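Look over both lines:
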Amino acid sequence: MTLKQLKYIVTVAETGNITEAAKKLFIAQPSLTSAIMELEKEFEITIFNRTRKGIDLTIDGEEFLGYARQVIEQTNLIEDRYTGNALSKPRFCVSSQHYSFVVEAFVELLKHFEGNKYEFHLRETQTYDIIEDVSRHKSEIGILFINDFNKTIIRKTLRDNNLTFEPLFNAKPHVFIGKNSPLANKNTLTLEDLTPFPRLSYEQGEHNSFYFSEEILSVEDADKELIVRDRATLFNLLIGMNGYTICSGVISEELNGPNIIAKPLDVDEHMEIGYILHESIKPSPLTKKYIEYLKKCVVK
């Protein structure tokens, strides 16, 4: 076994495709395939199942990938500490629904990261894609919410993908509006208060069912609907169109500015916001540290 072989395994797992991985690694596809087969033979396991659509990790492969990532990360730390030339950039990826505390924790992780090189990814994306990213090892961790309405479907989808859900906090529904909205002078809002205004929500692509919606109470009817894909657009429309979106209420003024405010919504509902991990892979040091910052950001 060599470090190069371990890097090959990690890259193939991330891309899900031998050809794409070979291009990314700048080696010939037969050489990559041969290196993986040699590793499988050495440890007498099958790391990847090969199909017409690509490759998937086996159960043994998922466990092996967890160890491989840890070895590479620790080796990079040693190389960077004593030579300043790590073998490769430490990689870390988060997939999440659109929460400012997720970004805030990501910023804190970067501020306190001690390496000279890194490749960090933050994907604010659709709910099903979050689950798929962590399931396919494209992301080490995902952040989403569960409530009474969606929990049966979401938890089944997580189980089917060998993922676990760990709660971070419970939140009562709030409404994000612009600070100059006609609703801004109210201490608490009702669903009736929201009726005249456009409701904003995030597009969910192929899995655009109410169960995968990012917004609580998505089944409630709204005469005016605005569907967006990114947080900046949503915030701009909240201000420009006096729109609203229903959310957790957790917002960072430092990152998002003072023009968006949160008002409590008078409904008997709650959101359990937490993170998902792959059950067969031990969290890396970076993942553990990121979880620490997540917890700090949500208790402010």
Notes: Residues 210 and 219 are 6 Å apart (CA to CA). The radius of gyration is 22 Å.
